[in-house]
Design a protein that fits this description.
Layout (H helix, E strand, L loop, with lengths): L4 E5 L2 H4 L2 E3 L3 H12 L2 H4 L3 H10 L6 H4 L24 H9 L3 H10 L8 H16 L1 H19 L4 H22 L2 H7 L3 E4 L2 E5 L4 E4 L5 E6 L7 E3 L6 E5 L3 H6 L8 H6 L1 H9 L4 E2 H8 L3 H13 L3 E6 L2 E6 L1 H10 L10
Parallel strand pairs: 1-5, 2-6, 6-8
Antiparallel strand pairs: 1-4, 3-4, 7-8, 9-11, 10-11
Helix pairs in contact: 6-9, 8-9, 15-16
Length: about 350
């Protein structure tokens, strides 16, 4: 039997329309799948131990019935990006709440015969699926509420740090695209992803082929999807979700929610700016990562620049900020192994 792969055929236009995004809702969904596997939890153990304790009395039954250990996750749970930039969790949750009943029914129904999902799991989830299909609108509302509850308890306290790590990965790969084109980036995403003869292939439990059709493809780094590579295919925007390398480093300095010494010294936003600038970033990048206004970022950067912790340079219309030698030493000392992490 031959290897099963998902193949995306690309044109020159598609190669110029490779873009990156990230999704707090996607990370929410992928982390639920990760928590269900003892093997996958090992890479996130400090965080996983903490959040599993928080979730012991939380009703997530309907949500978990839509997130199998392998295989298809209904598309409405992870709405694809629309090209307007990263969305906030509130926007993505509203998209879930607005899912048309017919889409919900079609996607949940498809799970019953999904070859990528264990048969035992499908059998166990079937009664809940039947209940959802009988009353889709209340089911959609309940699932959105469970997603919000889960997010608030597990990811929201750490999102600034997770988002910064994901944006760092995006920036480094965009630099490669700018200097060498998209092909080297495709080849470096994951061993299961390959680029050859104008085709992007993903080794998968599914066999599928589609032309990108000039719409390009969205690449989404994820903290929680590993070791899987996840795809979305037309008629939705084509998308590949790949594991961000070095995930263990994100949790190696996991600590309590008490402020770090650097945050106590400089304040939460300024310490977050310094941590984010371990990779140079624009004012807009920092504003998105830290969830404050660009004007506020400019004010904080000005103070840090006066203290010789940050330097800034103009590149076209953007101002790119980076750490000075002093700033780099300060940040790396504050997050050194064995030390406390910066506040999330």
């Amino acid at each position: 039997m031959g290897e099963t792969v998902i193949r995306f055929s690309a044109t020159v236009d598609d190669m110029t329309r490779v873009r990156f995004s990230l999704s707090p809702l996607g990370e929410t969904v992928y982390s639920i799948r990760m928590l269900a596997s003892a093997e996958r939890r090992k890479r996130h153990q400090p965080w996983a131990d903490d959040v599993r304790a928080k979730l012991r009395t939380v009703d997530l039954l309907s949500l978990r019935a839509l997130i199998p250990p392998t295989g298809y996750i209904p598309d409405f749970l992870t709405p694809p990006p629309d090209g307007s930039g990263p969305r906030k969790i509130t926007e993505e949750l509203e998209m879930v709440r607005s899912t048309p009943s017919e889409h919900f029914v079609a996607e949940v129904s498809w799970m019953a015969a999904d070859p990528g999902t264990p048969a035992a799991w499908r059998q166990e989830a079937a009664p809940l699926h039947r209940q959802m299909l009988a009353q889709p609108e209340p089911a959609i509302a309940r699932i959105a509420e469970q997603l919000h509850t889960y997010w608030r308890l597990t990811l929201e306290p750490h999102w600034r740090r997770l988002q910064g790590g994901l944006q760092s990965d995006i920036r480094s790969r965009m630099q490669v695209i700018e200097s060498s084109g998209a092909a080297p980036v495709f080849s470096s995403l994951h061993p299961r992803i390959a680029w050859r003869d104008q085709k992007l292939t993903v080794r998968s439990a599914y066999d599928y082929q589609e032309d990108l059709g000039g719409r390009g493809i969205v690449l989404v780094p994820s903290v929680f999807c590993g070791p899987e590579v996840l795809t979305m295919t037309p008629p939705q925007q084509s998308m590949i979700v790949y594991p961000r390398p070095g995930v263990e480093e994100l949790w190696s300095r996991y600590a309590s929610d008490q402020p770090s010494p650097l945050a106590a010294l400089l304040g939460g936003v300024r310490s977050a700016v310094l941590e984010a600038l371990l990779v140079p970033a624009s004012t807009g990048d920092l504003a998105a990562a830290i969830d404050v206004t660009p004007g506020a970022i400019s004010q904080h950067v000005a103070v840090l620049r006066e203290c010789d912790l940050v330097t800034s340079r103009r590149e076209g219309r953007r101002v790119i900020h980076s750490l000075t030698e002093t700033g780099d030493a300060l940040v790396r000392g504050a997050v050194a192994p064995g030390g406390r992490r910066l506040s999330a």
